[in-house]
Sequence to fold (120 residues):
Amino acid sequence: MIKGQCHCGTITYEYRDTPPYANRCNCSICRRLGTLWIYSDASNISVTGLNDSTSISYSHGDMELDFRTCNTCGTTILWQSLETPGKGRMALNLNMADLEVVNSIRIRHFDGADSWTHLD
Ligand SMILES: [Zn+2]
Fold:
């Protein structure tokens, strides 16, 4: 179980899975957001405090993913399916977890900008 919260504490998550690694992705949006992604099915994830008044939604390109960022502190929380939010594959920003948790998980560099493979 990994718990995380945004900087101001408005939005929290619980991740009931074991990530094999976290992805630092270099695609156009992830490299700007500075996120570290861990993934699972939405059934393994609970999020509190996330709604349209506490967060902004951003989508781009093929408009498949809904990136959510806290309105108050600017922490990027997650991405989820734009069409079926809260269902299917989701990604959480591991940087919201306690530092010792962040430091304990292997980071891999994912080439989302080009080859869609890991660079390590
Ligand atoms: Zn916040």
Notes: Residues 6-8, 10-11, 70, 72-73, 75 surround zinc ion (CB under 6 Å).
